[in-house]
Amino acid sequence: MAAQETVDHKYVYDFAEGNKDLKDLLGGKGANLAEMTNLGLPVPPGFTITTEACKAYLATGREPAGLAGQIEAHLESLERGMGRRLGDAHDPLLVSVRSGAKFSMPGMMETVLNVGLNDRSVVGLAAQAGGNERFAWDSYRRLIQMFGKTVCEVPGEEFEHALDEAKRARGTDNDLDLDADDLRGLVDAYKRIFLKHTGRDFPQEPREQLDLAIRAVFESWNAERAVLYRRQERIPADLGTAVNVVAMVFGNLGPDSGTGVAFTRDPASGAQGIYGDYLANAQGEDVVAGIRNTVPLQELERLDKRSYDELLDIMARLEGHYRDLCDIEFTIERGKLWMLQTRVGKRTAAAAFVIAGQLVDEGLIDLDEALHRVNGAQLAQLMFPRFQLDHDFEPVARGVGASPGAASGRVVFTSARAVELAGEGEAVILVRRETNPDDLNGMIAAKGILTSRGGKTSHAAVVARGMGKTCVSGADEIDVNVPAKRFTVAGQTVNEGDVVSIDGTTGKVYLGEVPVTPSEVVRYFEGTLDPDEADDALVKAVHRIMTHADATRRLAVRANADTGADAARARRFGAQGIGLCRTEHMFLGDRRELVERLILARTDTERSDALAALLPLQRDDFVEIFREMAGLPVTVRLIDPPLHEFLPPLEQLAVDVAVAQERGEDVAKEEALLAAVRRMHEENPMLGLRGVRLGLVIPGLFAMQVRAIAEAAVRVTRDGGSACPEIMVPLVGAVQELETVRAEAERIIAEVVGDSGVEVLIGTMIEVPRAALTAGQIAEAAQFFSFGTNDLTQMGWGFSRDDVEGAFFWRYLELGIFGISPFESIDRDGVGRLVRIAAEEGRAARPGLKLGVCGEHGGDPESVHFFHSVGLDYVSCSPFRVPVARLEAGRAAVETVGSDSR
Ligand code: PEP
Ligand code: MG
User: What secondary structure does DSSP assign to 31-42, as a single string?
Assistant: First the structure.
């Protein structure tokens, strides 16, 4: 920071010296004022103090050497240009001092207007304004108020209070009814307030006012609200703000003056037209404060046709120049139009797509640029049903927005009840402390899932995202009592059957029903809305941009899917295969009993009987999936989680057995079960007997799965279809593990496949750091790698994926240790480095090695760009995120280095 602090370092730029590409240095506002100046548009003259000056000031607590002199020089040239001097008693120049960072942070930092007014120049200002004393004194009182509040931390209410007093004394509640004498009195009252709070008189020296105001703007970069805003918007904390010193123009000089804002298109829908508001005889902050009602911009045509026409002309020029929606602030001073600001305007997700499409039609941008101008987060927003929150709904709790969307329904506490009520046609919300694989049926039946524990990679979150179902997890204000069938929150009790609404995007929980709007964009992806026939501009724009993304991207996109229904949905959403079929999800429900038999088997025969019973069921699962995927690759992962997850919880079982024993009941079976649960209990199951370890320890388990996969592929092929299975071994850390599994698998495959022509690949997940670091060796035995970034993050950071997000990540985010959970977006420097090493070393050992990712990061926009840059072949994500991944893979392919998508 401030390394280049030398006297001759340039800290101040005249508007004529800058341009729109200098946002890093001049901030957004300064860069765009410079651009407009150079376009010859009517911008009041001024200069910009750079973000570097701000950073130097914040680092050292003093202005960098040379800054004061440069300000002096630019001020003099401003004075010369305007023919007025700052604070002059007869014909004063006044300036505004405005913040302006690289990324817009609306209202978060400070502005001081009318700098240069004092007891003498106020008289000159009145003369300059044609004897308008009221205006001059009003401007002066505004300066003291803003300066006091912003620069000297005088409580704003004191000024408000004095203003109210003045209005009361005049018997009005309208500022405009105060006359020059009232305002002169108010200036005295404000000066007394200033003295009381600061111990000094209001500074009369204009240059001192200017320097203090500049300093206050620098410091406002670190104001609490600005820090908070940056964190939320993921704006880096070390950018600093520029400061713009601009000659004042006045919109409050009478009915032929005024101020307004305008958009070159509708920022809500993207529709073309004139959008904006105008307020006659007012300054910008009056619009913000809502003191008087604005009129639609079109009214200006009637009030001041010349200015209106000029404004429309400027708006068209700005759009053509920026090739995008612009928003504009302007002021009219006695019939003369001044441009105070422009920038590429913020817009809704829908408008982003529509406008990008329109600009292509207008020949202003090409399709690559259109693709660059939208993003996956916007597309995701358009795909979720939304709450219509136009009424007053107050959330009662807030958890983690774990799987986006909006859902309302009756509260149920068990999976069985969810299935039952949903069967009766009721919308239900399944509420649990946390979910486990047993809740799957209930989760499928429910419209949404609400848990009081767990983060974004908790079971509830992962499964819900996979299903595209709304989920709020870790809402810890909610106290769930499953046996009593109720939960309490904020002193209220919610019983089974009561209605709640959950917003999986914001994590907010509401009592009662909030109306929901379904998404047209999902209808389009699902194929029930034809984009050519839709009269919806949004659907057409999405279709066009998605088509271009698909044509452009290098990364293939697959889906994580475990059922035929998921596979079918994934294909409709454009998946080019299945990147992860988690077979453990097939061991639930009715099959649990068979798994229990497998675990409790005392003899080889008992074990092989259990496996033999599971085999046809598994085979049917795979047949269904292979049929749906019609020859596209399907990566089937052999069973991963610890087997005791399929047994009842230890504590509950121990209590049941003890109670039954007490009653003298026959509990031999339960005792055997309890003994097995005890035997298999692990302190750290995530690091225990799971994945490949399980396959090496339980004879026949992986063999059964491999056989089911191969037999299914053969059956589908013999039936005239085609199947392309890829068998994936989980949790491999050493090549020897993979070799052992592979030897047996190859033997079975050869035996089953025979001359059917079916080809089965065998590969591995890379999800243990050791696997990434020995990828060169592992690649010798693997035909493909799929990065399991959930476990790689868990083991790379040593963060339990089930606990940490809810437990302490808030503090890490607050401290800026990371800007976003590494479970959500790949940690490029650490976990990403493991991926890069493994990709490079894997491909060095086996050229052309197929590489994919199937952890949750596969559907995260930022992470997709990373995977593109590492050279993976595909990403795999939940079916509902497939369109987002397609779009982002396209963007990654067209993105130019250093482009700025914010
Ligand atoms: C992973 O670890 O990233 C992965 C895909 O496997 P799972 O989430 O099932 O552990
Ligand atoms: Mg894993």
Answer: HHHHHHHHTT--
Contacts of 308 (CB under 8 A, 6+ apart): 300, 301
What is the token pair recorded at 292? 């008087």
Q: Please name the residues in contact with 219: beta carbons below 8 A apart, sequence gap of 6 or more.
A: 58
Q: Which residues contact 604 (CB under 8 A, 6 or more apart)?
A: 699
Cα(872)–Cα(677) distance, integer angstroms:
41
State if residue 584 touches ligand 1 by the CB under 6 angstroms criterion.
Answer: no
Atom of ligand 1 nearest to the CA of 794: 2
Question: Is 459 among the residues known to form the active site?
Answer: yes
Answer yes or no: is the C-beta of 802 below 6 A from any ligand 1 atom: no
| Cα(895)–Cα(811) distance, integer angstroms | 34
* 877 Cβ closer than 6 Å to some ligand 1 atom: no
How many of the other CB atoms lie within 10 Å of CB of 844? Answer: 12
Segment holding 217, helix H or strand E? helix 206-220
Q: What is the CA radius of gyration of the chain?
A: 33
Q: What is the pLDDT of residue 288?
A: 57
The answer to whether the CB of 70 is under 6 A from ligand 1 is: no
* Residue 658 token pair: 């003890």
Torsion, Cα 599 602 605 611, to 10 degrees, reads 0
Q: In the structure encoding, which two tokens stand for residue 576, read together?
A: 């080019």
CA–CA dist 757, 716 (Å, integer): 12
227 pLDDT band (50/70/90 cuts)? confident
For a pocket test of ligand 1, which of 767, 823, 825, 860 has the largest count of ligand atoms closer than 8 A to its C-beta? 767
Q: Are 25 and 56 in contact (CB under 8 A)?
A: no
Which ligand does the CA of 459 lie closest to? 1
Backbone angles phi, psi at 180, to 5 degrees: -55, -40
Closest approach atom of ligand 1 to CA 767: 2
The edge-to-edge listing of strands for the beta sheet with 400-403 is 397-398, 508-511, 499-503, 406-412, 428-432, 448-451, 470-473, 400-403
- Mean local confidence (pLDDT), 561-571: 93
Give the helix/strand (H/E) hosting 355: helix 349-361
* DSSP conformational letter for 781: T
**Residue 4 neighbours by CB distance under 10 Å:** 12
Catalytic entry in 459, 585, 857, 865: 459
Per-residue model confidence as pLDDT tens digits over 847-858: 999 999 999 999
Percentage with pLDDT > 90 across the chain: 71
- Per-residue pLDDT at 897: 38
Instruction: Summarize pLDDT for 64-91 with one digit per residue, the tens.
Output: 999 999 999 999 999 998 999 999 999 9
Instruction: Give residue 797's pLDDT.
Output: 97
Q: How far apart are CA 240 and CA 222, in angstroms?
A: 9
Is residue 868 part of the annotated active site? The answer reads no
Q: Which of 457, 584, 768, 790 to mutate for ligand 1's pocket (most ligand atoms within 8 Å of CB)?
A: 790
Q: Is the pLDDT of residue 290 over 60?
A: no
Asked if 158 and 145 touch (Cβ cutoff 8 Å), the reply is no
Q: Which ligand 1 atom is nearest residue 462's CA?
A: 8
Question: Residue 394 Cα, ligand 1 centroid: separation in angstroms?
Answer: 36
What is 112-135 written as a DSSP string? EEEET--TTHHHHHHHHTTS-HHH
pTM over 0.70: yes
The pLDDT of residue 360 is above 90: yes
Atom of ligand 1 nearest to the CA of 730: 6
Task: Give the residue with greater pLDDT, 678 vs 749.
Answer: 749
What's the CA gap between 858 and 884, in Å, rounded?
A: 10
Which of 8-12, 111-115, 481-485, 730-734 tops mean pLDDT? 730-734
> Are β-strands 633-637 and 578-582 bridged in parallel, bridged antiparallel, or unpaired?
parallel
The size of the chain, in residues, is 902
Residue nearest to atom 10 of ligand 1 (CA): 791
Encoded amino acid at 207, one letter: R
- Which residue spans within 792-862 are E strands per DSSP? 850-853
